[in-house]
Amino acid sequence: MSPHNRNQWIDWGLKLYILLSFAFIFAPIAASFVFSLNVDRFPSMPLGGFSTIWYEAVYADPLVWEGLRNTLVTGVVVSLTATAIGFGAAYTDFRYRFFGKPVYLALALLPPTIPVVILGLAMLAFLANIRLSGEIYSVIIAHVVMCAPFAMAIIRLRLSQMDPSLEAAAWNLGASEWMAMRHVIVPFCRPAIFAALFITMAVSFDEFAVAWFVSGLHETLPVKVLGFLQGQVSPRINVIGTFVFLVSMTLVVLAQLLLMKRSAAPKAAGKVE
Amino acid sequence: MRKSITLYGMTFSLPMAIWQVMFFLAPLVFLIALSFWSVKNFRMEPDFNPDNWTRVLGRAVFWQAYLRTVILSAVAAMVASVLAFPCSYGIAFKLSPTARRWAIFMMVIPFFTSYLVRVYSWQIFLSDNGIINAALARVGLGPFPMLNSDFGVMVGYLTLCFPLVVLLQLFSLIFVDRTLIEAAHNLQCGRLRTVFEVVMPSAKVGLVIAALFCFILTFGDFVSPLYLGGGDPPTLSILITDTTKSGQQWPRAAVIALTMIATLLCVAFAAVSYAYRERGR
Amino acid sequence: MSTEALVVFDGVIKKFGQFLAVERVDFEIRKGEFLAIMGSSGCGKTTTLRMLAGLEAPTEGEIRLAGKRINDLPTWQRDTPMVWQSLALFPFLTVRENVEFSLRMRKIEKAERQRRVDEWLERMQITEFADRNVAHLSGGQRQRVALARSLVTEPEILLLDEPLSALDAHLKVRMQTVLSNLQRELGITFVYVTHSQSEAFSMADRVVIMSRGRIEQIGNPQEIYRAPRTKFVAEFLGSSNIFSGQVTTAGNGMIRIATPAGEFDAVSGAAKALGKGDKATFVVSDDRIQLSNQRPETGNALRASVVGEEFVGATAVVHLENPAGGLELKAQKSHEELEHLDLSPGAQVWLSWRPEAAHILPGE
Asked: CA angle, C156 as apex, C154 and C159 as ends, to 5°?
């Protein structure tokens, strides 16, 4: 729209509305950060005073450390597995046409649309039946199901930016399919692969519902938070929330930076040997 | 380019297929079988027993919960869509490209913050002696009970899906052909009418899909209705968690889950066919 | 250049499902020649090239390279490098790394790789860009990188798939010169696919013209230009004065053809076998047609009405039509020759040409 058709009042009104929307979204996040540094047990206004006692309480809690360890192990294994599987599926979709491809793609992409309670119940019942529930690897199995679609989507998007003749050009220059994969497809997808690693790790970090169903005694940190939520009011949730937020944001920002530098200097990305 | 299935192709395509068949499809199919199992002496036994179905579907509590869940999610979908539209419209049409990129980035952040922590935060805001009521008390108002009510549930639902609804609406609004808007103005269609008669129909698919996702997400959420809504009367997802964690009534939980899936499939099918229905032949 | 065949297409057919991309082609590519395959989009020229590169497998028939059947040889085991329409340079590699790629795939040792890459960077005059990102090069520079990358293994044959189509007119001509010189210096076989007549005719030793998956004519540019074999080729080369009819008399090296627009004489030339009653088609190139107000006394003549006039530099092309014969006609003349004529739309003029100017299409 050309500027002279604009109405300043409407424009400013809408911009104000956008700011209010962000206020609604970030108020709880900011509050949990602020109250994690507040001395009072029962949060209220005005603030009681600056203190790190809740950080100390969390730091001293062996259960939190155990939960964190479970979360980290799960996150790392899930992100590696989900990204590997997702990469394969993205490449399959990019390169091949075959009978039953819509079914294949549905299987690969549908899990995030199934409500987590249903997924959690189904996983719990199924894994218990084949005696795989109640362990860390139960959470890993479930999280890979949920995260692989995200990895696939991120890498598929990158592949769609690739000149389709690039792979054929590599074959034409004497690279076998495996060599072309190693020297052309993987280097081209490298930023997306790292982004997928970080994003899937962040998703796994925050997931509590399915983990709550299948983890049994091996609770991850978000499942512990769910436990705190059922118990008495405790600013420890704010501390853990702030911590998880900072970790997740670091991962997301890293992923974002990787996806942004599309055709970055080949020196950094392109040394294949 | 060769037609035959090669080891190379299988290496990349099979892991996803195997994993999702084993750990996604199989559990969902198992859920169907499980719903016919019977429970004797607190132990589940494979069976073909329609008892769970008749028991669950025969109880008034279940249908109250069903109705409540559907209504809450439908209201959430509408409220979120209406509240999100000015925001996504503003981001799509009133911001500079740089500001728009930042706004999109900010909208993605909530997906990577703990939903649980945000719900807990809302408890701090909404409780009877929480931040909002404390502020209102200073000017001599309140206290207004906001926690453990449907209002609390809505706040939680919006926390869950407002950013997603904005993003989905945004992505369809960005692709609305700007010349259509100019053409509408040129044909003497007013500012607001253009939004309703040109912009919204053009972005219909995105708007409907956004509402659908809001419905799906809230339909399966048990955190907001429990911790902000009080959990009484329960929603279907609260029923599932209660039934699952208290003893071995998994087959009944499976019945509830399958009813939910059936409902979601119907809603999704209706929404998608409405979204893609074309005018004329 | 010799007449020895390097590549033979022997009854090659390519189907994509039900779609017949290449109906049946039989031809040879000679060692050391610059062969252009020309046709409009969808004529099967690119598919033919891709079959030679091993990117598509022929449905039927045989392709032989240096006498050996290569139908089932995977593309990475053939030394048939290609320059792509999109160039397909690897965006995550530098110029040097792009050129080095095929040497690395062939496991050639490092010092030798270095030497050959340097040699080709030098030869293509891109040494100064060796460590640049390929995305930051100009169109012409990228073209040189693509050529160096394909030629660094010193193959016997180079395939080019419309490599110049993205360049502006000036650069296109410059790169044409680069390509022809390169081909002459190296003495290797170039197979060049294009839809552009000027590219094909200015560079190629021989041209293959394809239409709807079939070969319409093979020959050197002058031959094709002077003596198109079929109506398709004549139309493709832009001739518009095409007449079809039946032979009424034939003899003494002359032939008379009755068309809906009248009877015309032609020198029989290549079409000696035509006899009375046979169908025949001939073309008259637009610069050999005379225009006049009165009917000339000798030669073939035809009345037509003016459609319009188009200025092409020093000459003008007059567009005419003869509705009775269903003909669209063109005459190219200098401006002086047209001065005394009324060329307003709808005006009637006489076209004439000598019997020697009519070329009978042998393929019709």
From this structure: 95
CA nearest B2 in C: which residue?
C57
Give pLDDT, residue C272: 61
Does pLDDT of B211 surpass 60?
yes
Nearest CB among A163, A168, A173 relative to C105 is that of: A173
Q: For residues A58-80, give the mean pLDDT.
A: 91
pLDDT at position B279 is: 66
| B7 Cβ under 8 Å from any chain C Cβ | no
Nearest-by-CA chain B residue for C72? B2
Q: Would residue C230 be called left, alpha or beta, if left means φ above 0 and alpha means ψ between -120 and 50 degrees?
A: beta
Query: Phi and psi (nearest 5°) for B61?
Result: -55, -40
- What number is the average pLDDT over the span A135-146? 94
B109 lies within 8 A of chain A by CB: yes
**Confidence (pLDDT) at A268:** 36
B5 in reach of chain C (CB within 8 A): no
pTM of the full structure: 0.84
* Domain carrying residue C130: 5-228
Question: Does residue C297 sit in helix, strand or coil?
Answer: coil
Q: Are residues C142 and C196 in the same domain?
A: yes
Write out chain A residues lying below 8 Å of B139, CB-based. none
Distance separating alpha carbons of residues C51 and C44, to the nearest angstrom: 10
State whether residue A12 sits within 8 Å of chain C by CB: no
Q: Are B109 and B117 in contact (CB under 8 A)?
A: no
Cβ separation C75–A168 shorter than 8 A: yes
Domains in chain B, start-ordered, CATH in brackets? 59-276 (1.10.3720.10)
Question: Residue A5: what pLDDT?
Answer: 64
Q: Average pLDDT, stretch B242-249?
A: 80
Could you tell me the CATH number of the domain that includes residue C117? Answer: 3.40.50.300
Which residue is closest to A180 within chain C, CA to CA?
A: C105
Whether A113 has its CB under 8 Å from any CB of chain C: the answer is no
Residues C207 and C78 in one domain: yes
Span C204-235, pLDDT tens digits: 999 999 999 999 999 999 988 888 889 899 88
* CATH classification at residue A192: 1.10.3720.10
CB contacts < 8 A (B, C):
4
Question: Mean pLDDT in chain A?
Answer: 86
Query: What CATH number is given to the structural domain containing C309?
Result: 2.40.50.100
A 180-209 residues with CB < 8 A to C: 180, 183-184, 187-188, 190
H helices present in chain C, as ranges: 45-53, 95-105, 110-123, 139-151, 169-186, 197-203, 221-226, 231-236, 335-338
| CA nearest to C51, candidates A168, B217, A52, A190 | A168
Smallest Cα distance from A126 to chain C, Å: 43
Least Cα distance to B228 among B81, B124, B86 occurs for B124
Q: Which domain holds residue A178?
A: 61-262
Same-domain status, C264 and C188: no
Query: Considering the domain boundaries, does residue A40 fall inside one?
Result: no
Q: Are residues C210 and C248 in the same domain?
A: no
* Cβ distance of A176 and C149 shorter than 8 Å: no
Judge: C74–A166 Cβ closer than 8 Å, yes or no. no
